[in-house]
């Protein structure tokens, strides 16, 4: 549930009865209220880089994520592969965001 990162300040597993589509991905939510909040403003809640690891995107590749390895920076949700990768990511978030933003248009189509 991507909304939970903002509202509850932690990852919460979504349920199959509360889903929404955004940019080709299906998101699950813990409640109808969270689903509705997401549907009203998906750009506000959707994780950056299609939900792939932000550190990986900065490195030019797509990597899966661990829901507990996350950061909200400037109102945007960034997910990471693991806690150790999250620590690396945290060492230079602005620099990694610049790199990931530059890489994402090409990575998105892969």
What report would you give on this structure?
The chain is of the alpha+beta class and 110 residues long. Helices cover 45% and strands 19% of the residues. The chain has helices at 2-7, 32-40, 42-45, 54-59, 83-90, 93-108, and strands spanning 15-22, 25-29, 70-73, 76-79. The strands form 2 sheets. Strands 1-2 form a two-stranded antiparallel sheet. The chain has a two-stranded antiparallel sheet with strand order 3-4. It is globular. The mean pLDDT is 97.
Please tag this protein with its features.
110 residues, alpha+beta, two-stranded antiparallel sheet, 6 helices, globular
The rounded distance between the terminal residues' Cα atoms is: 25 Å
The secondary-structure element order is HEEHHHEEHH
- In one word, what is the shape? globular
Average pLDDT over all residues: 97
- Evaluate the radius of gyration: 13 Å
- Report the sheet-strand fraction: 15-25%
Helix fraction?
Answer: 40-55%
Task: Tell how many strands the DSSP assignment holds.
Answer: 4
Q: Give the neighbour order of strands across the main sheet.
A: 1-2
- The class by helix and strand makeup works out as alpha+beta
Q: Largest beta sheet, briefly?
A: 2 strands, antiparallel
